[in-house]
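FAQ

Q: What does a record look like?
A: Structure on top, sequence underneath. For example:
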């Protein structure tokens, strides 16, 4: 028995001895995991930016216009300006010196200095800026520079590894690692947002730096953080490379961005609205207002339509609709899929150039008590009531005089003082019209078009029954 065990043990030892050279060879082919190769590819294209800005202290401190304040704190005409230095980052996108960065890094700068690889310094000029996306294009006078390779940011997935490269707090080029935490984020920081969220550490000074994939290719430009104390807390945001480079091409060509527009006021589709329209889940953009003489009105888009797709790209929310339209070419004939009366319909819309702000104000809709809708009390608007409540003449509907705080109506946003203009897309100016409209389809939520007096805008509200 012992001889058999010894023989078995000897066989194991022989096997181990036989395999050891192969194990050693395999280990030599798999050194300790490192991201140095990614850094080698991307970091030479990431630059440090120092921008000298002049701040008018009189605009910052209106008390400077007060003679008493001037007496004690000095005449603003003599030293009313202060010079600030802004530190940030940028990315070389071409060998002849074009650099992409954030608008807020170089905005109002009178002198911009770019340092490459911590050594060579260049004076830069601004080619163009777009504050609405926080993108800027600057240029240095040089040739044969190492530029970054740009990737398709639409191919990013949540969970992909990414690396942030920049100049946090001015300490010099720094590399941090993380993953893509979310896509399509909108945080209300700039007008047009479709941000990549990452937990790769981003700090002040990283703005304008590179967010790269594991091939060292640019997928985003670091732009903002959410933080209580100004430091990184694992929630950073980057502008996708596809959006940034659409802006850059326009700045390079024209020095400005010419945006297309649709001419609608949309709102998100919540669960109640989705239930009313028979959607499996909330998505799309619900059209609240169609402005007169706009691409939308000319194409036949109507109030109450839900925009589901633009050029076969699914629209998830109003922010996404705005981004997709604004990044389209002016005069492009967009194919828009809408949901109307329970049926999908395709419309061709010739997009126009975004007009001045004054000419795109939303079109204002032509606007005894009742408790037909649970928890909601309304009454007709008499001349006396209109005068007492200061309701504009152009609004005809029913005034909401009470909403039970525990009701479904209160939960979805209906409030006292609102004016109900439509029920199920039917005008309601009398209590009779209101009751008839509510009684036609009680299996679905009550779909109301409401004018919010305090906010001076119209929205749709779906009240579950």
């Amino acid at each position: 028995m012992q001889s058999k065990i010894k023989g078995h043990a000897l066989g194991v030892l022989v096997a181990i001895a036989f395999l050891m050279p192969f194990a050693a060879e395999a280990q030599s082919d798999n050194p300790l995991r490192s991201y140095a190769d990614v850094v080698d590819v991307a970091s030479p294209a990431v630059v440090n930016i120092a921008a000298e800005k002049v701040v008018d202290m009189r605009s910052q401190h209106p008390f400077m216009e007060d003679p008493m304040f001037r007496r004690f704190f000095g005449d603003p005409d003599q030293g009313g300006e202060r010079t600030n230095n802004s530190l940030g980052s940028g990315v070389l996108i071409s060998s002849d010196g074009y650099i992409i960065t954030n608008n807020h890094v170089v905005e109002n700068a009178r002198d911009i200095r770019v340092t490459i690889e911590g050594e060579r310094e260049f004076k830069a000029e601004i080619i163009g800026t777009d504050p609405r996306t926080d993108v800027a294009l600057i240029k240095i006078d040089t040739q044969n520079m190492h530029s970054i390779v740009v990737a398709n940011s639409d191919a990013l997935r949540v969970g992909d590894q990414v690396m942030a490269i920049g100049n946090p707090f001015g300490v010099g080029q720094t590399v941090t690692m993380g993953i893509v935490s979310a896509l399509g984020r909108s945080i209300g920081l700039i007008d047009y947002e479709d941000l990549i969220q990452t937990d790769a550490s981003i700090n002040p000074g990283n703005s304008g730096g590179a967010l790269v994939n594991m091939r060292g290719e640019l997928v985003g430009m670091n732009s903002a953080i959410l933080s209580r104390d100004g430091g990184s807390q694992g929630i950073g945001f980057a502008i996708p490379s596809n959006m940034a480079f659409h802006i850059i091409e326009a700045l390079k060509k024209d020095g400005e961005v010419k945006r297309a527009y649709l001419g609608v006021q949309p709102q998100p589709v919540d669960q109640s609205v989705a239930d009313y329209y028979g959607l499996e889940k909330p998505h799309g953009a619900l059209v609240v207002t169609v402005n007169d003489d706009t691409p939308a009105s000319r194409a036949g888009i109507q109030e109450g339509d839900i925009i589901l797709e633009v050029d076969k790209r699914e629209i998830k929310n109003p922010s996404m609709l705005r981004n997709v339209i604004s990044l389209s070419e002016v005069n492009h004939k967009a194919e828009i899929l809408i949901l109307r009366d329970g049926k999908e319909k395709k419309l061709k819309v010739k997009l126009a150039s975004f007009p001045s702000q004054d000419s795109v104000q939303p079109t204002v809709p032509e606007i005894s008590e009742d408790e037909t809708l649970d928890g909601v009390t309304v009454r007709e608007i008499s001349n006396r009531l209109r005068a007492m409540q200061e309701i504009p003449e152009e609004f005809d509907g029913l005034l909401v005089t009470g909403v039970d705080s525990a009701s479904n109506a209160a939960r979805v946003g209906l409030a006292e003082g609102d004016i109900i203009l439509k029920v199920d897309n039917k005008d309601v100016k009398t209590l009779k019209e209101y009751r008839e409209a509510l009684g036609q389809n009680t299996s679905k939520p009550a779909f109301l078009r409401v004018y919010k007096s305090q906010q001076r805008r119209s929205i749709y509200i779906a009240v579950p029954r």
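Q: Is there anything notable about this one?
A: The longest strand covers residues 81-92.
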